[in-house]
Specification:
By secondary structure, the chain is an alpha+beta fold. The chain has 13 helices and 14 strands. Helix 1 packs antiparallel against helix 2 and helix 10 runs antiparallel to helix 13. The chain is elongated and about 150 Å long.
């Protein structure tokens, strides 16, 4: 920079000296300025040609600011080439790794158009590369469940993964495949679709369900015969006390086994029929009133206190038998695990997300590590205590399936030494409301 200034002063000094000698000072200054401008223009032209076509034009070797600019640009270009090379290596490694994955991967833009796929996506989803690039994936996968999932994700503006972020549907290719598909947002306005082959898992689960149903059916008849003989023997007054005690224990355990088999058969029926039949608007306040009488009988001498906060006009479109079964199960559980004389609350209300039934007890509470598994078959937070209460270990599993058949969810919250809350949440599409002073239903 200093050399550049010295050069300007030198040209100016020479122009001034010549101008004074010739008595043409302004003209000499003008000629000197034009010379400097032409010289700088020539240097910038060389710099521009090198930047525009670096392969055909050499880097300009000069001094001053132009030299500094050229040197900095050259360093930036070298650094950029190195970064580009590293990025290409990373991209190549990513593509090789993604292609080796057993799951199908598809990158979508904010409009659901295909940006990139791996090799598995070609086999599972029938997408052709690069022929289908920029095509809307909804035009290639025409499945109602997938279309709903895609719409939910693309229309969600919260930046968080929507509640329904996974669905299962038959693969669009000719093979007998079932895909579990998720769509998650990542980067800026991009989404990653992941499709996994779950055909074997579904087949194994179907085999398990059939096995449980078949075994339960096979056990039911001999167990009924066994129970009958035990009851006949109990009527024999000639047996000694030890034999009567043994028969009493046998009768108790056979009753428990019979209850387990009945629950397994009922659970198997729920699993094989995804939708309830014979649905109608069910007035929840009346249903809870019926269950209250049963709960009082179960409570007996324990004399639990009940507090009801029920919307009298709110109804559920569903199966009255299944809703009665689910609500009874939850309320009777609250009776069993709430100390004598303590309070049990039942709250039925409506908000913008749908209808909600809450059963709140004041029992011992459930450790947090157990909450996520309570609806599994035969899972018990306290096995000994559950058996003492006469449970089969299938009650909450049945409740979960009955609610799922109504597109509802079961949420469990608990605090030790305070109590537990079991919340059944029904979608708005299942809620009906009686208009005050009329007999008409509002959907």
């Amino acid at each position: 920079m200093k050399d550049e200034i010295y050069r300007y002063f030198l040209v100016g000094g020479i122009a001034t000296a010549i101008g004074l000698m010739l008595d043409q000072l302004i003209l000499c200054w003008l000629i000197g300025a034009i010379a400097i401008i032409f010289w700088q223009y020539n240097r910038f032209r060389l710099l521009y040609n090198w930047i525009d076509r670096p392969n055909k034009n050499p880097m300009p070797y000069t001094t001053g600011v132009i030299s500094d600019i050229a040197s900095r640009i050259d360093r930036l270009k070298k650094s950029s080439r190195q970064r580009k090379k590293r990025l290409q290596q990373y991209m190549s490694q990513f593509q090789r790794g993604a292609s080796a994955l057993p799951d199908a991967l598809v990158i979508l833009d904010g409009h659901g158009q295909i940006e990139w796929i791996n090799d598995t996506a070609k086999r599972y989803l029938g997408i052709h590369w690069p022929g289908d690039i920029k095509r809307p994936i909804g035009n290639l996968i025409r499945n109602p469940d997938f279309t709903k999932l895609l719409s939910n994700v693309l229309l969600d503006e919260s930046g968080l993964t929507p509640k329904q972020s996974t669905t299962e549907f038959p693969a669009p290719v000719g093979e007998r495949l079932v895909l579990s598909t998720s769509i998650v947002p990542y980067a800026n306005g991009l989404y990653l679709l992941i499709a996994r082959d779950v055909t074997r898992l579904i087949d194994v689960n179907a085999i398990r369900k059939d096995f449980v149903a078949n075994v339960s059916h096979e056990l039911k008849t001999p167990l009924t015969v066994f129970k009958g003989y035990v009851e006949v023997l109990q009527d024999n007054k000639d047996l000694d006390e030890q034999s009567m005690h043994a028969l009493s224990v046998m009768h108790e355990h056979s009753n428990r086994m019979h209850a387990i088999i009945e629950d397994l058969l009922f659970l198997s029926k729920l699993e094989h029929e995804p939708e309830p039949t014979g649905t109608a608007p069910v007035l929840v306040s009346e249903l809870i009133a019926e269950i209250h009488q049963v709960a009082q009988a179960v409570s007996g001498d324990q004399k639990h206190l009940f507090k009801f906060e029920l919307n009298p006009n709110l109804m559920i479109e569903g199966s009255v038998d299944e809703l009665r079964s689910a609500f009874t199960n939850l309320i009777i559980n609250a009776v069993k695990y709430t100390p004598a004389g303590e309070l049990i609350k039942v709250h039925w209300y409506h908000n913008k997300s749908g209808g909600h039934l809450e059963i709140i007890d004041t029992g011992p509470g459930i450790p947090e590590r157990h909450l996520s598994r309570l609806t599994e078959r035969f899972y018990r937070a306290d096995a000994d205590r559950s058996r003492d209460k006469g449970g089969t270990g299938l009650g909450l599993a049945i409740v979960k399936h009955e609610l799922q058949r109504h597109q509802a969810t079961l949420t469990i919250e608990s605090e030790l030494q305070v109590g537990s809350t079991f919340r059944c949440s029904f979608p708005e599409s299942r809620i009906r409301e009686i208009q005050p002073n009329t007999s008409k239903l509002k959907a």
